[in-house]
Design goal:
Layout (H helix, E strand, L loop, with lengths): L5 E3 L7 H7 L5 H9 L4 E11 L2 H6 L12 E10 L7 E8 L18 H5 L8 E7 L4 E9 L2 E9 L1 H7 L6
Parallel strand pairs: 1-5
Antiparallel strand pairs: 2-3, 3-4, 4-7, 5-6, 6-7
Length: 172
Amino acid sequence: MSSTPFICLTHLSPPSELLSWLNVAGSLTAVLEVKAGQPLRVERSFEGYRLLSLAQKKQLNVTGAMLNRPMLAWVREAQLYGNDARPWVAAQSIFPLPSLKGHARRLQQLKGTPIGYVLFKRSRTLPNQRFIQQTAEGWQRQTRYDWYGRQLLISETFLPAFVATDSQISVK
């Protein structure tokens, strides 16, 4: 996989064994499924409307007076399971309401479908900007995608169960 330019939001560097995963260009779902040898299982912990934080609005490239106004988004939080009983990735998908027009409305009905199935159905890569940071849960990549002119923010945190299995198989 080719590396995608990213902005590291922490003074620490990600461990070398995670760097290729944090920089996967295209569908993370697809490469995780190759690693698992099976489709990912998605367990949703939250799905519904939420107000965006100031930081989320900035990451979504909201500017001007809109930064100070309340903005709703459809948010889905889920755990992604590979071939392990423990989750590999904690994911959060943020779809600002202005982005949910036309065919994009289907993003509100993903249920247990991995977001990568929808985002990368027609294209292997999408224009994006990536931010990488270390959180209390693990190393996280936050990617702002331009999906057919719509801004979406997808956060994926690599959990300890994934890190424990990562030494066995790496991204090719």
